[in-house]
Amino acid sequence: MNSTEDNELWVRRFHPSPEAAARLVCLPHAGGAASFYFPVSAALAPRVDVLAVQYPGRQDRRKEPCIDSLPELARQIVPRLLPWTDRPLALFGHSMGASLGFEVARLLEHQHGVVPVALFASARRAPSAHRDEFVHRQSDDRLIREVEELSGTDSQLLRDPEMRSMVLPALRGDYKAAETYRYAPGPDLGCPITALIGDTDPRVTVEEARAWAAHTTGEFALKIYGGGHFYLNQHSGGVVREISGQLLSATGV
């Protein structure tokens, strides 16, 4: 596979905006896919060039093995992002994607000298705010109930046996990656971090979100919205405005 095909496999660009002054890289949640960010891309184009990462093990990559380690997934993603660093780059990650975004940002900054202009960490506690969680070890039914409780996936789809067989391997692998992730002390970030959470999210408290401040030498902000783990579904407009406003301030887009 040539480098162009490899890049297109990992990085999806739904609304190419070659004249944009900044790029936003979006990282999906556990069990999620790049297409989750299609509406964000549509809303920000053409002022921001939005890239969405497609992890192995889902949708058109479902025949590939899932990567069940966040540090390893970050190491795989970063080389695919380097060709896109010719202009200011920001990162947005939801849930597992926020932890992954932190690891990607660390590698970009400390191994490649690319400092993101912002990291938006959505619906995820700070890397140092650890919880012991073991959902990835539970039965298929328990894993499905977890997803239903967080309202992240249409439960009717997951009750279809064929759909379940397609979705479960990536979902379980992602949960393993998220639940076995451990923060490794070391250089933190120089870029601003904005933590965004829903006020009734059972997976992150205000204190756990505020702990993101300790992971950057730059500015920190905490934004709280009404809703649960997928508060994004009700507040997509507000989140897009927050992203757009910060990138406007940082780059003039």
From TrEMBL:
Hydrolase keyword on record: yes
Gene Ontology molecular function terms on file: hydrolase activity
Keywords noted in UniProt: Hydrolase
Span of domain Thioesterase TesA-like: 25-247
Family: Belongs to the thioesterase family.
PANTHER family assigned to the protein according to its UniProt record, in alphabetical order: S-ACYL FATTY ACID SYNTHASE THIOESTERASE, MEDIUM CHAIN, THIOESTERASE
Protein name: Alpha/beta fold hydrolase
UniProt organism field: Streptomyces sirii
